[in-house]
Amino acid sequence: MKTAITAIVSFILGAVTLGLVAGLSANQFMIQETLSPLSFDDTVASISKTVTDKGWKLPKVYRLDKTMEKHGYEVNPVAVLELCHPEHAYKILSNDDSLLVTPFMPCRISVYQRDNGDVVIARMNSGLMSNLFDREVASVMGTATSQVEGIIASSIVDSDAVVADAAPVPAAN
């Protein structure tokens, strides 16, 4: 009897500990962050140029800080870039069984500046998320994830050449 009670208590404590650890570290798994060596504006411009250079579309750039400013609030610079690759989108949108992932569309990259001046590029870990869906969706999400990671890497590694050629990005609020 004592062994059974010990086993049950151990199981409950293990489950609670696992839940706490998973809950506290979930953001580290679901959101990926990359520190940019560039300024905020140069990071946004570099990503914007690289997106189109790599064959993707950039339908909209939201400047959340500018929107907040219109409402009387001041926050550090924050931009959300929407990325779209029509071929990938078509594979999802043309299949009824795949439409459940449309809340994740289009792909988004966030660029923000922290209080200490660090500029961060953040995005959902869609590679991890893709494992939750069927083979077709997982394939499209996996390919898109790989390409978006390449865009980010190229934007900050090859930044000198990219930023020099980049046109200013109009803010959409």
- The helix/strand order is HEHEHEHEEHHH
Tally of helical runs: 7
- Regions with pLDDT < 50 over 5+ consecutive residues? 19-25, 160-171
Q: In CATH terms, what is the architecture? A: 2-Layer Sandwich
Could you tell me how far the N terminus lies from the C terminus, measured between alpha carbons in angstroms?
Answer: 65 Å
- How much helix, percentage-wise, in residues? 40-55%
Domains, number:
1
Quick take:
With 173 residues, the protein is an alpha+beta fold. Helices cover 54% and strands 19% of the residues. It is built from seven helices and five strands, in the order αβαβαβαββααα.
How would you describe this structure to a colleague?
This protein has 173 residues and is an alpha+beta fold. The chain has a single domain (31-165), classed as TATA-Binding Protein (2-Layer Sandwich), CATH 3.30.310. It has 7 helices and 5 strands, in the order αβαβαβαββααα. It has helices spanning 2-30, 40-53, 64-70, 86-93, 126-130, 135-157, 159-165, and strands spanning 31-36, 57-63, 78-84, 107-113, 119-124. The protein has a 5-stranded antiparallel sheet with strand order 1-5-4-3-2. A hairpin with a 5-residue loop joins strand 4 and strand 5 (119-124). Helix 2 (40-53) packs across helix 6 (135-157), helix 2 (40-53) packs across helix 7 and helix 4 (86-93) runs antiparallel to helix 6. The radius of gyration is 20 Å and the shape is globular. The termini are far apart. Mean pLDDT is 83; it is low at 19-25 and 160-171.
